[in-house]
Amino acid sequence: MNDLIEANVVGSLNSSYAFYTGLIDGGAMPADVTTETALQNVWSQEPDVRSDTTEWVYSFLLMAYQPLSDAELEAYIAFSRTEAGQDMSGALFSAFDGMFDDISRGLGLASSRFMVSQEL
Fold this sequence. Notes:
Layout: H1 4-25, H2 35-44, H3 46-65, H4 70-80, H5 83-116
Helix pairs in contact: 1-2, 1-3, 1-5
C-alpha cells in the first residue's frame, strides 16, 4: 500500500546524496571524493537505511493508526488503493522529498563553510 517503505528509502538516500553534493560543491571533501564516489557511498548504505526505515514505518503506522476504528482504517485503506489516493501519496512524497533535498544540500554547503574555514 502506497510503497511507503520504498518511497522513504528513496527519499532518505536522495537527501543523503544531496548533503554530500553540498559538501563537495562547498569544497569540504577531498579531491578524490566526487559525485560518483558519493553516490557509491550513499548506495552502500541502502541495506541499513532500508532496515531502519522498515522498522520506523511499521512503528509509526502502528502508533498513528491505533486510535482508528476498524471502519476508519478500512476506509483509509480503500482510499489509498484508489487513483486519487495514489496521486495524493505521490504528491506528498514528491513535495516533501524536493524540499528535503534542497534543505539537505543547503546543510552540506553550510557545513562545508565551517569545515574549510581557518582561524585568522
